[in-house]
Amino acid sequence: MINKTKLLLLLFLFPVFAESADLDSLIKVAETVTGEKKTNLYLKIADMYKNVDFYKGKEYCERAYLYSKNNGFKKEEVKSLLSWGMFFAITGNIDSAKIVFTEAKNSSEKLNSDSLLARAYLSLGNLDYMTGNQLGALANYESALVFYFALKDTSNLITIYNNLGVVYGTMGLYEKSVAEYIKSLNLSRSLKNQKQEFTALLNIGTVYYDLQNFNQALIHFTSALKLVESTGNQNDKALALLNLGLCYSGLKNYSDAKTSFEKSLEIARKIKLVTVEISGLINLADLNSETGDFQSAYNYAKEALNLSPVESFRENRIVVLNILSKILIKNGSLAEAYGYITEAITLSDDFGLKLKLESTKILADYYLKSGDLKNYAGTITQQIILQDSMYNESLNSKVAELEVQFNLESKTDKINLLTAEKERSEFRLKNEALIRYLLIAGLILFALVIVFLFHLTKQKTQTQVALSEQHEQIKAQARELESLNNAKDKFFSILAHDLKSPLNAVIGYADVLADDSDIKTPEEQHEFAQGVKSAAYSLNDMLTNLLHWSRLQLGNLNYNPGSVDLSELVSATEKMYNENFKLKKLKFTAVSETGLTAFADKNMLSITVNNLISNAIKFTPEGGSIDLKAFKENQLAVIQISDTGTGMSEEKIKSLFDMTKFEHSTGTSGEMGSGLGLKICRDMVELNRGTIEISSKTGEGTVIKVTFPVSKS
Fold this sequence. Notes:
Elements: H1 8-13, H2 23-32, H3 36-49, H4 54-70, H5 74-90, H6 94-111, H7 114-130, H8 134-151, H9 154-170, H10 174-190, H11 194-210, H12 214-231, H13 234-250, H14 254-270, H15 274-290, H16 294-306, H17 314-330, H18 334-347, H19 352-370, H20 373-444, H21 450-514, H22 522-554, E1 561-565, H23 566-584, E2 587-592, E3 597-601, H24 602-618, E4 625-633, E5 636-643, H25 650-655, E6 665-666, E7 672-673, H26 676-687, E8 691-697, E9 701-709
Parallel strand pairs: 2-4
Antiparallel strand pairs: 1-3, 4-5, 5-9, 6-7, 8-9
Helix pairs in contact: 2-3, 3-4, 3-5, 4-5, 5-6, 5-7, 6-7, 7-8, 8-9, 8-20, 9-10, 9-11, 10-11, 11-12, 11-13, 12-13, 13-14, 13-15, 14-15, 15-16, 15-17, 16-17, 17-18, 17-19, 18-19, 19-20, 20-21, 20-22, 21-22, 22-26, 23-24, 24-26
């Protein structure tokens, strides 16, 4: 597999000025003007130097900052800090970048400037992304999003959607990533912003590339290239060709890949776009290594290394060092390879776990080829530790992402409530003023218009009654909102408890398995492993339901109804839960009418049936039975799940679908639950124009009957 090098985010987080701009002319003009214009010209020059000479760019940022600070230009001072921090970030001086961006944020708050504060949050989000803090990036981007919405700044909204898509993609949340990119794409097209449209197309292609769907990736990369050829932007053309090369490599079409990389490299060298030049060299090195041309691979990698000083391109240097080490190890040049790989490991400490894991794997390969088995074993242990850390980081990211979404939803509720109160207050004041003017006019004309005054008094009484009724409605809405918020608080409290239980189980079993002081029998080891597996399944079910619920609440769950073969659905469900039935010693039967199809969203229908089967397993004791049937009744497609479990009371059934009621429930083997799964089922069934009925008796079992329209096709 060709090494994937993505410079996409870095290039688009900080916009690039036109390639044809004359730097020398701008520098001369900047020295002749005064005031805020001088600062802004310094910042423009700095930005143009970004892809040519980092140190020159940083120098002009410092000039802009000192000039604006000495002359009391507060807003320009903050702009200078934001640009200055960007140069610190790109050159790997993360601590300095953090200090500068934070100072810019604090100054923006003092100036009460929403636009600068939004930029500060965006810059902090970029910094968090670069250092692998994806949750911090999400939080800062969401904060910037709120400000840009208020400012109606559509251009920066496009940027935020794009960056959110990149972060979600890095976290492996590909559906969420594509959803954000599509928002960016649609908004770009509505504004006829071809630059941002190009970005969105390229990033959607990158998601498909990550999923190894190279054909879909190729379609989007090709569309991006056609778009940029019509605009003539050479920066973007070099980047599009680079991504096309990566896609061709994934398809094993090495000839077209090489052509694309070489064209990209040619453009990058011509316009002095160093970042893309490095990436082109890296991928040509990797491609030649893959095809067995080690000398060419070595030459390209060495050239890329020379263009990647640690002060300016630390992350790229790590990638180059890794590739160079692999080439040398393959070619048997172990001594030279060792120097490069040890440098890569040292540098990777500042750039997250993924790069360090890659470097550690190469070091292990070096020790193996060198015959140093002791160090090889130690490096393998380090790999396992890094992989565990990445797994934990991924798990925490999923939970934290839901928390970010919930917090944003709470903020939206509060904003909407405050806006409604403000509108009602303005309405009340306008009515009071109108009544006051009418009363004055009535007094002046009292003698002549008695009838009119009587009519006005009657109208006033009606208005007061209407206002009183509206006030009662407002109070009722406020009580309902408070009740829903309390329900959410209670739900997350229950969720935290329920998540903790399977996590503790996993940790407990893992501790026992990891304890070398006592030799375990194979039977004991199997029992502990089954415990870990059961707890992990429980945890996965909870997180999956949470994701479905959050998408339903935010309206982000795709609804694509069509013809669904119920025989296939029943068969797939039986296979999915076969292990669970065996584990709990449950008798399971599944029957479906041949050729029966329902008209519904296949994904939602599958989620509904899986939740209902999972609940039946949870509340049916060992030795019990569960039946799944699909049949046609009264021109409707029916799915029926019956069990011989613990059953429910009438009162319990009535509370199942109440969104203000969440409570703990425990299965017959100690499984935890909050009732969220059934609420999700109800919402999805109703969205598909279906019905759900539950009949149950305590101690006798439960029957759940779900109906959907029959497919006409």
